[in-house]
Amino acid sequence: MANKRTVIIGGGPAGSTVGSLLKRHRPQMDVTIIEREKFPRDHVGESQLPTINDILMELGVWDKVEAANFPIKIGATYRWGNSDDLWDFEFIPGQDFTQTERPGKFEGQRMQTSFQVDRAVYDKILLDHSKELGCEVREETRVVKVHRDGDRVTGLELEGGEMVVGDYYIDATGHTGILRRAMEVKVEEPTNLKNVAFWDYWRDADWAVTIGKDGTRVQVLSLGYGWIWFIPIGPDRTSVGLIIPAAYLKESGKKPEEIYLEAIHTDDRVGPLLKNAKCEDAFSTTKDWSFMAERLHGENWFLAGESAGFADPILAAGLTLAHIGARHVAYTIIGIERGKLDADWLKTSYTNNQRDRMSQHIRFADFWYTGNGLFTDLKQVTAEIADDAGLNLTPDQAFQWLGTGGFLNDNYLAASVAEYSVSAIKVISERFRGGKTTWAIAKYNWIELDLDGAVEEKVPLMLDGRINEETVLVRNNRRLPKFGIMNELLQMLNTQGHTVKLAMGMERYANSMGAPPVQVVEHMIALLENLVQEGWAKGSVRDDLQFFEYETRAEGPNIHANRDDELFNGSS
């Protein structure tokens, strides 16, 4: 029997991730990647999140990416909201970062940081790695027509007339969406925010801060009419962009390059960093508003990366969503080929999970913009988000709800929204709204589960090239995992409701795990908060019991007022 063949259109991070994982976990499969351009080529979207590291390790390419000497991303510095003050969100506290020799190993603090990548270099590393693993990579090759029979792709016609036929087809062509358009998949735009983006690359710009030798933070700086990104992507190359509402551009009467140069040179933080820099004159523009495809799979095809959807870049989620979604596509194909799980369930799980991921990022991006006094009209959007979750809230109430947790992440094992922990979201909400945010669990001293009406459902859990079935409880479109650390918490709640004793039980569990107790306990507290927020648990007050006192720290090691002048100032 001939080997099955997967044909991938697009050689960017999504396409190469699918291809490499297929060859690593199912090497007998033939994989062809068709890319219209010749790599290297520039591409916007350079800032990563730590989640990507684990995928790069699974691909076997982390060491190659590290050897490229990209700046190490410690976090981001923001100027946002109703104040011009700078504040930092750090993956690891800057003062704790220790410079090590590079290339380094994926261990210790490097497991908590991420990269700021020059996409011309990064994408080529990933595509070349796919080729080394056995993928057939065809660059400078254009697909001119997708042949179909109903919802089934029957072949790809290339420029020149050649037909490429496979068993599975992947659209990883970004906004172009070659296969998505051919299969007539509709696109939703679940936001009222319509932005446009302008950017260029600068040589020899100063970094806003140098942590150690190679560490830094990206700069995300609100203006009176939009925001600027400043992302060092190499020792001497920086990506600088401007995002503004499309309506503002139209009303200004200015040309895109004019408004871009005026914004970056007059900004009191970015302007001085570019004083001695030279522009590459590679000015680019694009529409930059969020969208999602209504479905991400068909009979024998999948959408991966930005062909499936795009989330506003304020949260730096583009590459994360691309890698995570592409990994899920690869695992889905592998699961179908192994034949032990239902193919329709596998495909539908991918579409539902990836749409949930994108939706969370899009919604949280909208929340982020509402945190800026200039985007108050978007508060109505948060009310609509809450309504989707079955809550009847005013815009201000919905804004607070979303900003203090909102809903459980599709990750199942994390208490977070769009990669941000519940604790971090509460701190961010305080900065946006002013005043203190409250923890639901701090209002009560007794918490008990409320699982009435919930039904069990199977979800995929992907590990080591295999998909395993795990159980979640489902009620009102909300999912509650019955595995991992959440299951440990559920077991505690089955036997104990007193919040003080629950906290003691969390600490005992953390000590038994051999992990840092503070991290585990804080994670379980965040999970408990989500259980109460989502209605999976109910709180009450009993007169004879003590309260477990817990509140958000206004200043913590990871979110705090900017301290560059005191701590770094360009020195290690």
Give an overview of the whole structure.
The protein is of the alpha+beta class and 572 residues long. Among the domains are: 210 residues, FAD/NAD(P)-binding domain (3-Layer(bba) Sandwich), CATH 3.50.50.60; 98 residues. 35% of the residues lie in helices and 24% in strands. It has 17 helices and 28 strands. The strands form seven sheets. Strands 3, 4, 5, 12, 13, 14, 15, 16, 17 and 28 form a ten-stranded mixed sheet that branches. Strands 6-2-1-10-19 form a five-stranded parallel sheet. A hairpin with a 2-residue loop joins strand 14 and strand 15. Helix 11 crosses helix 12, helix 14 packs across helix 15 and helix 15 crosses helix 16.
Q: Could you name the key traits of this structure?
A:
single chain, 572 residues, alpha+beta, FAD/NAD(P)-binding domain, ten-stranded mixed β-sheet, five-stranded parallel β-sheet, globular
Determine the fraction of residues in helical runs and give it as a percent range.
25-40%
Quote the beta fraction: 15-25%
Please state the structural category: alpha+beta
Give the end-to-end Cα distance, rounded to a whole number of Å: 60 Å
Quaternary structure type: single chain
* Number of DSSP-assigned strands: 28
What is the CATH third-level topology name of the domain at 5-70 and 106-184 and 292-356? FAD/NAD(P)-binding domain
The CATH architecture assignment of the domain at 5-70 and 106-184 and 292-356 turns out to be 3-Layer(bba) Sandwich
Q: How many H/I helical runs? A: 17
Give the low-confidence spans.
403-410
